[in-house]
Please model this.
Amino acid sequence: MNTFVAYEFRNPDLLATALTHRSASARHNERLEFLGDALLGFIIADVLHERFPTADEGGLTRARAALVNRDTLAEIAREFDVGALLRLGEGELKSGGWRRSSILANAVEAVTAAIYLDGGMDACRSAVLRWFERRLAAANPGAAPKDAKTELQEYLQARKRPLPSYRTLAEEGPPHDRKFRIECLIEGYPPVIAESNSRRGGEQDAARLALKGLRTGELP
Model:
């Protein structure tokens, strides 16, 4: 068994679904991704809250964001060779989908949810802590970098302005090469639009562009 899935499923179909991309079957892992994303955020937040009793909310939030994001999840997937476990459609196989960060990160989320549904929170937490062990040991809320969305939010809060909102304008392209067009809306300013191969990436890119525009005066 691949060391990533070091858990014996009572219902192996859950694991099979978690590792199935939408390009391969109508029964794919997107619903599990949704649940797994929430579970990862909760488990990592719980661990950080316990380990760093004096850290403030901002530091803990940034530390969690540095750990639970597409790039980090994809790195973990590569370390455990999760790509070799994926079930992909013909188009994804030809384009090297097993190497794509978005697909790998989504698989980590989906497997997280599958373990939770099959074995409960204790089993899920144990798996997540094993995957993140090295990164959690190095975590430092006091030094965690701020992501673009957090920076934009803090910039607006400091000026007593309403917080931004994000909207998906379009989702286009084949399953193996999806493109998301994301709009960042800030009251009193024109919308800022960015494109990415994931909603999260698009939101971060739009926030980064908006923040740059506010700081340089490019946004009227």
Residues 3-138 form a domain with the Ribonuclease iii, N-terminal Endonuclease Domain; Chain A fold (CATH 1.10.1520.10). The two ends are 57 Å apart (CA to CA). The chain has two domains: 3-138, 148-216.
